[in-house]
From TrEMBL:
Protein's organism: Xylaria flabelliformis
Keyword Isomerase: yes
Example GO molecular function: carbohydrate binding
InterPro entries, per the entry: Aldose_1/G6P_1-epimerase, Gal_mutarotase_sf_dom, Galactose_mutarotase-like, GH-type_carb-bd
Signal peptide: 1-20
This protein's record includes keyword Cell membrane: no
Superkingdom of the organism of origin: Eukaryota
Protein name: Aldose 1-epimerase
One Gene Ontology term from the biological process aspect of the record: glucose metabolic process
């Protein structure tokens, strides 16, 4: 009875209004659930509640699929590389130092799955919830209309070492040229950390640019992000909050800048971890109070491609923004049949290093191990309290005057 009551309460917070006129028949032959709006078509799968397609016409009227993924839903669960394509990492996104945290004086140890060492052969930290985090699991489709889909998951007490049961709904909706999502989660039995995100791989050229096969031509603007979280060689937060000095590698706040503009600067080496050149950083979102995150122009990020003319502005109620410039891609992940160039030996049908960009709306990473930041009320949730809620909108437009 308790679980049914919880599901009903969460459903009231997150479910779209369904209509018989817009009911759909389920997945297509590739296991994709499609939704539509003016200017956009998107497909999702139950594995990780992942986005698998996002189709939009570029400045020349050519349809582009601008997110990474696989052709068939069945492949997501068997690919050994598992780059978290388009899924919802959980129950705690990003990294957890030493795979442990303390709540009310009790230490919890969760599944380590990254950076193995002699002292920690399974891993020195936990990334995206462990070996069987949420984006490795199949969600349940609880609502599917012409323009919206809602997934649910029940995460049991003790799974991957996390305390307490968590019940969650993930709702994706298309309207006009906008992709909205809302993530709601409720801790039903014990206090537990919860932090979710969308781990979507973007290439606004649909990997079809005949001038470059990377996303380094994309221009990024983070107008509220003059600071970032300091990290060590394996990207674990040190507790320090660093300034993104104007003109520095990590300065995307003072003016829009191409992703590749600063990668030859000495400062770019080790910026994304030991011996890594690029970005895998958490920028803080510092907006003047009060603000309405939905207000036009109050975006936390804007990404543009001069080649395709496609632009996306990211609006969210979250206060941090992780950017990963696909430094770990090495040309072994195949493109989908909806992407890339064909019969061109100069541009293999794979994702190269720097071939994409991940943009994650979320809270301050690993704040559960940095209590001095004062983020506990945004990351630790328990029975009887408010649910975890994440909201975001990705607003698309076409700039026919874009230049490189």
């Amino acid at each position: 009875m308790r679980l049914n009551t919880t599901l009903a309460a969460l459903g009231a917070l997150s479910l779209p209004i369904a209509s018989a006129d817009y009911a759909t028949s389920g997945p297509d032959k590739d296991g994709l659930y499609w939704i539509y709006s003016e200017g956009l078509s998107a497909a999702f799968i139950t594995y990780g509640a992942s986005i698998s397609r996002l189709l939009i016409n570029d400045q020349y009227g050519i349809q582009r699929d601008i997110v990474g993924g696989w052709d068939n839903a069945s492949y997501y669960g068997i690919d050994q590389q598992h780059p978290h394509f388009g899924g919802v990492p959980g129950r705690y996104a990003n990294r957890i130092q030493n795979s442990s945290f303390v709540i009310d004086g009790e230490t919890y140890h969760v599944d380590p799955n990254e950076n193995p060492t002699a002292a920690a052969p399974l891993g020195a930290d936990t990334l995206h919830g462990g070996h069987d985090g949420w984006d490795y699991r199949n969600f349940t489709v609880v609502s599917h209309t012409n323009d919206s889909i809602t997934f649910s998951i029940v995460d049991p007490d003790g799974k991957e070492g996390f305390p307490g049961e968590v019940v969650s709904y993930i709702t994706y909706t298309l309207r006009d040229y906008t992709w909205d999502f809302k993530m709601v989660a409720l801790a039903t039995t014990k206090k537990t950390p919860i932090m979710l995100s969308s781990h979507t791989y973007w290439n606004l050229d649909g990997f079809a640019n005949n001038e470059t096969n990377t996303a380094l031509n994309h221009t990024l603007y983070l107008p509220h992000s003059g600071q970032r979280v300091g990290v060590d060689n394996i990207l674990i937060p040190t507790g320090d909050i660093l300034a993104n000095k104007q003109g520095s590698v990590n300065d995307f706040w003072s003016a829009p800048k191409q992703i590749g503009a600063s990668l030859n600067d000495p400062e770019a080496l080790n910026n994304c971890g030991f011996n890594c050149t690029g970005y895998d950083n958490c920028w803080l979102v510092n907006r003047e109070e009060p603000y309405n995150w939905r207000d036009e122009g109050n975006f936390v990020a804007r990404l543009q491609s001069p080649w395709s003319g496609i632009q996306v502005e990211v609006y969210t109620d979250q206060e941090a923004f992780q950017v990963y410039s696909c430094n770990g891609q090495n040309g072994t992940v195949a493109l989908k049949k909806t992407q890339g160039l064909f019969d061109n030996s100069d541009f293999p049908r794979t994702i190269p290093k720097y071939g994409c960009l991940v943009m994650e709306v979320e809270d301050w990473i690993d704040a559960i191990n940095n209590p001095e930041w004062g983020r506990a009320d945004k990351q630790i949730f328990g029975p009887g309290g408010d649910p975890y809620v994440l909201q975001a909108s990705y607003v698309f437009s076409i700039n026919t005057t874009a230049t490189s």
